[in-house]
User: Fold these one by one.
Assistant:
Number 1:
Amino acid sequence: MPEALAGGALVLGVTIAGFLMVVMLPLFRVPSTSPTIRGLKLAMLGLAATVALGVMLAFALAWGWQVPLMVMADLHAAWGFGAWAGVLLAAMAYVVVPMFQLTPGYQARPSWWFPVLMFACVCFWSVAVLFEMPLVGLLAQLVASLLGLAFCIVTLRLQSKRRRARPDATYRYWQLGLGCAIFALFSGLTVTLWPPVANSNEWPILFGILLIGGGFISFIVGMLYKIVPFLAWLHLQNLGESKVPAPAMNKILAEKAMQRQMICQALAIVLAIGAVFSPDWLARPAGLVFVVANAFLIWNLAGAVRRYRQHALLITEKLAA
């Protein structure tokens, strides 16, 4: 049904355009005084380009426009993974990795330039596609992959210097995400230097599983497991008015529950990777374990909200007494 595909793309595009207007207008009024602010601005531009390309591709599929679909799909992925998600991840990592994992800070000069260089690589890639300059596109892909690898390796190096001896779920999730991202980027380098690999049916699926399922989802869940209990603790601390202490964060979201959920998530990733090469045997188990892992995640986060409310009620009662 081409009308449904085009209509869905239009609704999605208009919705995200509204979100971008709400976010970008105040964001771009803020001076770029830190790498995080600069990265957030570039990431929003990357999201705008990603959505525009996605809507255009959906219209092309729906109405039969004569465009090079595979080339444009690769470019759409480049904007999504590189200029949007990759730049956004780096911008947030500059804050959350030192804050929550107690690591040294990222070096200032590379932090300032990584978002700009990654964004520039995707721009050059786009120019190469539009003006049919394959060598420029190849060079842009190569530099973008190397930049991503450099960010992952630097982050791993900082984590090795963390001041907290005992690894928690957030640390483990970032390790998992960085490991998967490194394998994905190495496979991207392989395709760039040896293009015949891209003709295989397995490579795009494997790349997507490693970078999205193993990489970005792991980063998101890992940050959720630190941000949710931290915000709950902060609200309880303020509610107690320095008279009633807030419970420790592990009383709001237990470490064992997070570790068990992470094991399910890691198993789902392993099964999904195996399903690329043996889909008949492993695709359904991978999907089932992924559903279980996400149900476990919802259970953990809902439990954190429930315990927050219980502690808030207890603190209120103690203050009233």
Number 2:
Amino acid sequence: MNHLPFDELRRRCQKPGYRCLGNWMARRVTRPAALHLTRIVAPWGISANLATLTALGCGVAAACCFAWATPWGWILGAVLLQSWYLLDHVDGQLARLRGTASLDGVQLDYLMHHTINLLVPLGVGAGLFGRSAEPIWLIVGLVCGLSLLVITLQHDARYKAFIQRLKRVEGRLEVIGGGGGRPEPQPPVPRTPSRLLAWTARKTCEIHVIANLLALAALGQLILGDERLVAGSACLAVITAAAVAVACWSVLYSQHSGAAEREFAAWFRPRPGEQIVFLDGWWCVREEKTNPASSPPPEKSNNPIQG
């Protein structure tokens, strides 16, 4: 693939709207950097799935390095975690370049994300426990990892619920492309204090922000010779507080607002004149019943064909 002009490589590898969709780091740093790496490894015959598994290996190694609990261990862990985020973009670019994008590849990518979201905080917590001998850090790492997992699994669980209902449908539903929404540019930073606080908490739970916070803590610890990893302790505490708050709020809000039902209705709809009802354990598509008393009388017409 080295013979491809760079503009053509970019067109084939990058996803639609790559310059405006996604977080700032992906738009400005990681996707452009990943494209150069993709250009290098593409002629080697590396598959997108192998790139995903390599990224997973980097993420797991990063968690182990954070558990090592030394300033240099944290530096290595931070570098590996940044490498994981870079390779997480290379796999998709390889799939688009070769035309091998598939649901199986996307599924593997999501499994890798969930694994890293859980393991990295666990590794940090285990390392702080080993350094301080205080079991509270094991609990903090576990709570942080589980909270991040709940945040990312919420949509996965919602779409699994969609499939479960669709398996129990008798009849036909129309699939409305984009009915549940499409990727959109990031909204502007809110200005009101309460919304800004909520926005900051959500951003703190995004994996690229977590990777950058851990990298800053690692660099600070190395410069200051902080063998007690005070900066790392503070970093994990902040991430955990944000993750617990966001996880609890997102689940409670989704349940209270009926978000899953609303999104299902946006994606899957009965045809005009029909409705979907729950009968005897099945979701049945039936003709929509109208109340004759509430229906207006038919208009009379002098046209014999219409009459």
Number 3:
Amino acid sequence: MTALVLQARLDSSRLPEKSLLPLGGRPLIFRVMEALSFLPCQIRILACPEDSVSAFAPLAEEAGFTLVAGPKDDVLARFCRAIHRGSAERIIRATGDNPFVFVDAAAALNKEALDLNADYAAYSGLPYGAGVESVSARALLRAQQEARAPAEREHVCPYLYGRPELFHLHRPLAPRRWQGAQARITVDTHEDYERAQALYTTLLPLPPPERNLGETIIGAYKRLFAGNAE
């Protein structure tokens, strides 16, 4: 079973409560869940800190996500709670500040990871904010037992990709149609948020899931922000 696990929180230092900022009339985190709903998987989980439950619970329910709460700074532990909650064998890790995740690229990556039986998989060369990671539940549970550094707990996967001698890693360059490493489509600052509003407005007339496809998003980004994407 594959579980999509989306991590999110409220207390961002650079853009406070960005998950609740409006994007196309709905909270940003809802738009992220909306996009990820087109990704084929058996269970969808929103993993948040305990102090975010009251804000996120109704949005998760509306989007068809199961809410799992856990430690604020130990996100790895949060993911492992999600594994146990969903009895997942593989996790697709997504983050709550990426409303323009490439759903088609995420599905392709996860299929490659499954075919290769990779412990960890991620594309390089994607726009910043477009990608996900595909990780075996077994590898994450091992990391939960062995990882000690705070960064390995907070960022979930560094223990895996930092130890290629222990884990089977798959980190290919993304297919050319999805490449655009100079483009930035995450939401981490006020400037990012303004750019996201313009991009979402441009994509909104398109029917889903067309507006969630990588080539569509890259094309719209280039038209809006010529010179900022290669």
Number 4:
Amino acid sequence: MNIEPVSSIEEVSTLLAENALPIADISASSPLQFFGVRDAGALVAVVGLELYRPFGLLRSLAVRADFRRRGLARELVAFAESTSAAQGVASLFLLTTTADQFFLGLGYALASRDQAPSAIQASSQFSSLCPASSAFLSKRVAGRANPVVQETPRDGAAQRPWP
């Protein structure tokens, strides 16, 4: 599995819409960076990052329904954490209405929305796209430039570090 930058806003928007995730602020000029996984050329999983150093907003994590339960979401999050740390981000934040337990299992912690850094509060995801009832979570990622992630065993592989 290769995780690669994704520049096609159309592909990303389609996958996010299929997963009922917000797409209103996604455009070629938005501050988002997307990374994804392809199968036979088609985008099957994606994650987005908005960087406001020393903070970052992890968002737009989606996996096509027929590719779930393969560990792609975990690997994309680990990749986003590593990429963020390598670019000077100390802490990642996210908002979710459905996946708080997933992120808690990855070491994220519930955070108070009123304690969010001003750059995160100013993001469209925080200020308008996600409802006030969304769980707000954070995780310190500084010093995690090469995390070891658990890979879903398809071929008996156990763990491998990201390059």
